Amino acid sequence: MTRLLNINTYHYRRGGSDVVYLDHAAMMQREGFDCGYFAMQHPKNEPTPWSEHFVDEIEFGHDYGLAQKLVMAGKVVWSWEARKKLARLLDQFPADIAHLHCIYHHLSPAILPLLAARGVPAVLTAHDLKIACPAYKMLTHDGICERCKDGSVINVVRHRCVRGSLAASAIVAVESGLHRSLNTWQRHLAAVVCPSRFFLEKFVAWGWRREQLLHIPNWVDASTFEPRFEPGRHVLYFGRLAPEKGVATLIRAAHQARVALRIVGTGPEESTLRALVTEMGNTAEFVGYRSGQALHDEIRAARAVVLPSEWYENAPMSVLESMALGTVVIGADIGGIGEIVEHGKTGWLFASGDVSALAERLAATAALPDTALVTLARAGRLRVEQVFSRERYMDAMLALYARLGAGAPQVTRPHAAVQQLGVAA
Q1: Model confidence pLDDT, tens digit, residues 206-237
Q2: φ, ψ for residue 160 (rounded to 5)?
Q3: Domains and CATH numbers, the chain
Q4: Which site in 72, 141, 165, 410 is 20 to 30 Å from 224, CA atoms measured?
């Protein structure tokens, strides 16, 4: 039986990348793989017998003493603890392949040379831009930023790219500088899976070898999403309330278009955004955090879901899930959003950060006959079923594992999947 080691910082559904980590492993286990896990200790972790090997918990938002902070800083740069514990796990579970998700800061790239030394091919799914940008967002106080591409990682300190903190930015600059000099990521990763073509091309622009990168889109099981196909009267934003999400632009555009807006989510910008709504006459409603069925109900009840991002989005699951639920998406034309939303066919795109362009689209959507919206929504649902399906994801992933010598148990039609998805073979 093929042994697959799944590696991620968190072993619970904290964010989108953690969901992919757990769902991917569960899918592979159903396919016949023997799955092991390596992560960080955390009180919210899902129960697993592998937790005895997990590294000690580090939560950077906690109030630690100076000595603890120094230890944490060292682990961010190079975690000897993670190497030691992973070595013990591999003694017990000699993996045929390792699939990594978000490992930096808590597990650190220090585990990559160990996997290579043990002869375990390592695949990384690039949920963000960390393997290029030290601060993983290509975003700083003055907007989109690619200063470190041709410049020094000192830019991270100069612009305080990590949480606006000089100390945190300095630690990440040291970490990134070390692994750039050692070429840790490129030397020891067998392949990098990019959920969007945009990310793949961005990594190439930052010096990655194209043959090391593969485009395998995210997937949703559309059969578990019940669509409504009955447009509501308001538009909806759901997600984190953070500067890069462009919610302020959406609030201004909705006010300008005189369109009702509901905002689902919480985050560091909530108080600022609430003040903006008050200033504009309470034209938007904040409804707090929603998840599961409650969130699905919000999406189905909307006339359109808006993703007004102002940073390089990858392949947002929020777009796929909205389309699967039968709701049209209006997305900023930035990052990988345009690879999912086909303008005028399954939804609409607008220039990121452009209040007037978004207001025009919101007004047009409000005026459009319901039947026209339903036609687009049905086309979006069909696109998810055909292009972003579990089967296509599985076939492409199994083809990759087989190419790396992992001996996948049930490769169905890998070569066709590779060609259809534009994956480098």
Answers
A1: 999 999 999 999 999 999 999 999 999 999 99
A2: 50, 55
A3: 3-220+390-421 (3.40.50.2000), 222-387 (3.40.50.2000)
A4: 410
